[in-house]
């Protein structure tokens, strides 16, 4: 199938609508295409937050809420908020959330986070930054809502560095993944959006550079599966930092 990415102007509406459409199959799709490894990567993301009892964590672009739930599992005394603009993804998140869990799921836009400045100790974002309309604008929003010294942990697809493995990865991502998507939801073009959106997404080093340029103080890269999956851990400077 020939596929064209939405324009920058269309991207937000497109992404919101398409995640609404695939919400019921999203978790299953993720399990199949990553062979379940996304669960391990999300646990790793939460381990990087260094949250302490009473801290407040925002899971941005929370989707069906995997990372938000993992935050609470690892840090039961933290306050967790999940934010997403897809009502259907949030409905699944709510349905998987036990009533007293303490996670608040909110409908909202990552480009305009409905919280005051310096509100969160940590912001997690899984497969979200690639989907927002303006990556730099979103990084600025995350910095704004983080407390000084707060941490952002970002999980997304990365670029494989070894040429042979990169070829195999591209074959899997561009040929097999859409087939799996089509098997789960025949005719759904969102499963073509996933690999194509990765083409426009910066590689690990460039993303690190963009984070530092946006105002984060440090950014560490943790690669998995030869870099096909990657986690960035970046810190907002403390008030005393230069
Ligand atoms: C690939 S899913 C990731 C879900 C979840 N974080 C995970 O790791 O499985 C991307 C999510 O980002 C959400 N999203 C994309 N752009 C957004 C924005 N500007 N504001 C809020 N949510 C957004 C989509 O609705 C979707 O639920």
In short:
The chain has helices at 8-33, 37-47, 66-74, 87-95, 135-145, 163-184, 190-200, 204-214; strands at 56-60, 79-84, 103-107, 120-126, 146-157, 218-224, 229-235. The protein has 242 residues and is of the alpha/beta class. It has a single domain (8-235), classed as Vaccinia Virus protein VP39 (Rossmann fold).
What would your notes on this structure say?
It is a single chain. The protein has one domain (8-235): Rossmann fold. It is 45% helix and 20% strand. The chain is built from 8 helices and 7 strands, in the order ααβαβαββαβαααββ. The chain has a 7-stranded mixed sheet, sandwiched between helices. Strand 6 and strand 7 form a beta hairpin. Residues 12, 15-16, 19, 30, 61-63, 66-67, 84-86, 89, 109-111, 126-128, 131-132 line the site of S-adenosylmethionine.
Going by CATH, the architecture would be 3-Layer(aba) Sandwich
Q: What are the low-pLDDT stretches, counting only 5+ consecutive residues below 50?
A: none
Strand content: 15-25%
CATH class: Alpha Beta
Give the helix tally.
8
Name the structural class. Answer: alpha/beta
The distinct bound ligands, ions and cofactors come out as: S-adenosylmethionine
Count of individual beta strands: 7
Task: Order the strands across the largest sheet as they lie in space.
Answer: 3-2-1-4-5-7-6
Helix content: 40-55%
Distance between the termini: 51 Å
What value does the Rg take, in angstroms? 17 Å
Mean pLDDT comes to: 94
């Amino acid at each position: 199938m020939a596929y064209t990415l939405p324009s920058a102007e269309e991207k937000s509406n497109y992404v919101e609508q398409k995640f609404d459409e695939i919400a019921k199959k999203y978790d299953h799709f993720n399990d199949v295409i990553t062979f379940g490894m996304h669960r391990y990567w999300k646990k790793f993301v939460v381990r990087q937050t260094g949250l302490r009892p009473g801290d407040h964590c925002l899971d941005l672009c929370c989707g069906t809420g995997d990372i938000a739930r993992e935050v609470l599992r690892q840090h039961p005394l933290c306050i967790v908020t999940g934010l997403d603009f897809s009502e259907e993804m949030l409905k699944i998140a709510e349905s998987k959330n036990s009533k007293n869990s303490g996670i608040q799921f909110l409908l909202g836009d990552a480009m305009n986070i409905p919280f005051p400045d310096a509100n969160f100790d940590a912001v997690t974002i899984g497969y979200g930054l690639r989907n927002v309309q303006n990556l730099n604008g979103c990084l600025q929003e995350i910095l704004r809502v983080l407390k000084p010294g707060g941490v952002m942990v970002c999980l997304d697809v990365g670029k494989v560095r070894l040429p042979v493995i990169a070829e195999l990865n591209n074959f899997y991502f561009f040929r097999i993944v859409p087939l799996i998507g089509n098997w789960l939801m025949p005719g759904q073009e969102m499963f073509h959006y996933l690999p194509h959106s990765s083409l426009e997404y910066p590689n690990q080093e460039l993303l690190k550079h963009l984070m530092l340029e946006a105002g984060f103080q440090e950014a560490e890269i943790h690669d998995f599966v030869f870099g096909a999956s990657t986690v960035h851990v970046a810190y907002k400077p403390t008030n005393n930092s230069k």
